[in-house]
Amino acid sequence: MALPTRHLRDCLGGDRIIEVTLPRALAAADIEALSSDHALTFLRDLPKPFFRADLRGGYSMSGIVSERTIQVTVRLARRGEAEVLAQDAARRLLGA
Amino acid sequence: MSHYLNHAATSLPRAPHAITAMIDAMALGSPDRGADANAAAVIAEARRVVADRVGGGTTCFTAGATAALNLAIAGALTLSERKRVAHDPLLHNASLRPLLAHRATLQPLPHDRHGRIDTAALARDFPDCDLLVITHISNVTGSEQPLDAIAELARARGVPLIVDASQSAGLREAIPGDFVAFSAHKAFAGPPGVGALVVRAHAPEIPPMLHGGTGGESAATEMPRELPLRFEAGTPNLPGIAAFAAAASAPKRRPVARAAIDDLCARLQRAGASVVGAPDAAIVSFTITGLEPRDVARIMSSSFGVELRAGLHCAPLAHRALGTFPSGTARVSWNTETDRAALDAVVAAVGALVGSRPGGRDG
Predict the structure, then answer these.
(1) Nearest Cα residue to B153 out of B134, B173, B167
(2) Which one of B298, B312, B353 has the shortest CB-CB distance to A12?
(3) Whole-angstrom Cα distance, residue B303 to residue B329?
């Protein structure tokens, strides 16, 4: 079943940003379990740890530990697939 | 506690007397050319107050700076077949998009690496152009163009000058130019959705963008020639205009002192950020190596309670000129009412962010 999404407006050069609401709050373990083939930035020492994972194929996801939403950024070339890619990113994150 | 540092987008909190004026104006009747004398008086006084804040002229009310720039640009481009427009390299889309929509041929003026126009080079080699469009203070870098010198050169060559004064109106006085465009919701802390095009007596006559009723000369098939009626078809936004005037007639807000701007830049650099450009106003863009500006803004908000803006700030040309395209920058913008603690929080947050990157402070 598709997770709820909403399109965010941002002042960027054509990327599409979609916020996905997860069924539960994000845990550090979710991020640590991400496949090693993602280019991962995990700033775990921040008061609210932040991560960004660049996924192959022109999109990325980012989020904050303990929050229930992530943001999926889809590059201009794949804007038309943004919804599908956003769902895919959330599935990867939650290991579903 | 949240620290709001996005005043270049919208100044908050709004001026309380502007809110009161807006509510009071809702009780007035139609300002349409004398139908309610009180309403007409409010608008007449608003024109005077608003024009005075930028050095005088005829105030034509618009739906904001973007509408004012569209009006001036579309009109001025009808004055020449060639449509050759020289401009500063830090244009906002409010100027760039109407220029492109009207098929202007664009020519950036000579500038330094921060985007500031080189007036000596301009004086030596003034471009063969039909119009100048200048952003007085950049909404990306806070750098101020040497507008007096540019205006003098333009005037000597008979080239009309349109000034985007969105970030300077309310903070700078006597802003030169034939057409000066700005909005109510930035330095004035007035309402959104209302702005002005102040037209100077020496400006060339340009056609209106909107056509319609003006409350007079109704038998005429064309818009009247005189300002401000020429540019104000339809019923004016009386509550917005009243609030704009109330905000603009408040005691003038001092610009942030140069020393305070330089101090924040130096502290951000020491904390590990790279300041982009050379700010003259309280608008400071920065980047942090290894982090996307939008991530910086998100982390600032979630971990440190600092609200700032990230991205291209609707000024892609500026980022191309500054080398920060396409990711843009994170931007801090403040005013003299901003608590020192808010700026301290930004510096501390940058330090913490830099230290938390992969590789820490050397990352």
Answers:
(1) B134
(2) B312
(3) 19
Smallest CA–CA distance, residue B354 to chain A, in Å, is 10
Please state the pTM of the whole predicted model.
0.94
- pLDDT mean across residues, chain B: 95
B35-79 tens-digit pLDDT: 788 899 999 999 999 999 999 999 999 999 999 999 999 999 999
Inter-chain touch B355–A45, beta carbons under 8 Å = yes
Burial string for A58-77 (b: 16+ CB within 10 Å, else e) reads: bbbbbbbbeeebbbbbbbee
Residue in the block written with tokens 């209106």:
B208
Both tokens assigned to B305: 């309670």
For residue A14, the chain B residue with the least C-alpha distance is B326
Which positions of B are annotated as active-site residues?
314
* Closest Cβ–Cβ partner in B303, B314, B325 for A11: B314
Question: Looking at this predicted complex, what is its ipTM?
Answer: 0.90
Strand partners, A70: A20, A63
User: Is there a contact between A46 and B355 if contact means CB atoms under 8 Å apart?
Assistant: no
Sort out which chain A residues have CB atoms less than 8 A from B351's CB and list them. none
Taking one residue from A and the other from B, the number of pairs with CB-CB distance under 8 angstroms is 56
CA distance B35 to B16: 28
Average pLDDT on B165-177 reads: 97
Asked if B326 and A13 come within 8 Å (Cβ–Cβ), the reply is yes
Mind listing the pLDDT tens digit for each residue in A52-92?
A: 998 888 889 999 999 999 999 988 778 788 888 899 889 88
A96-to-A92, B159, B202 alpha-carbon distances in Å: 6, 64, 69
